[in-house]
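Prompt: I keep going back and forth on a fold encoding question. Comparing notes only helps if you start from a blank page. Show me how you would write down a chain together with its backbone fold. Please set it down just below, with no commentary around it:
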Amino acid sequence: MTKPPMTGSQHAGQERQAEGDGQRFVTLGRVSGAHGIQGWVKVHSETSPRENIVGYSPWYLLRDGKRECHKVNAGRRQGKSVVAKLAGCNDRDAAEALVGAEIAIPRSQLPATSEPGEYYWADLVGLRVETLDGVELGRIEQLFETGANDVIVVGGERERLLPYTWQQVVREVDLEQGLMRVDWDPDF
C-alpha cells in the first residue's frame, strides 16, 4: 500500500472557525510583500504547487483580528514566488497594508479528494493520535515538510514529531472518528 496522497492544497495547514457563522476556513498562505506600484501582492503559498493559491477566490485575509473578503482578479508564479492582484488593491500603499495577512478560504472551496485515503493536511489537524495498542499520544497540531518526508506534530502530555510514512508509522486515518492510529513507541 502506498502513502495516501495529499493533493492540491495539501499544505493548507491550519483550520479555523469563522467568527459568528461557524464556517470552517483553511489557511493557504500569507501576504509577504508588495509587488510593483499597481497594487499587486507577493504571496507565501502553502499550496502544492504554490501557484494553485491564485485559483481560489475569494480570499479571506485575517489581519488585526478581522477577516476581510478579497476577490482575486489575477495571479501568477513570479520566479520562486507567487504574485496576485486583489480587487480594490490598486496601489503599492494598499498592497503594503496587507503584508502579514493570513490568506484563508472556506474549507468548502477545496475540491473533493479524488481517491479513498487521500487527505488535505487541514483535515488531519486536530485528529486524536493513538498507538496500535490504544495508548493516546495527543492531537495533531500541525504538519510540515522536511524534504525527506512530511512530519506530524502531535501535542499531548509532551510534543512528539512523527514521520508521515504510510503503513510504516501511520497505519489508519478515520476522519469520521477523528482518529489516526500509528505504529509508534509511546516512550519515544
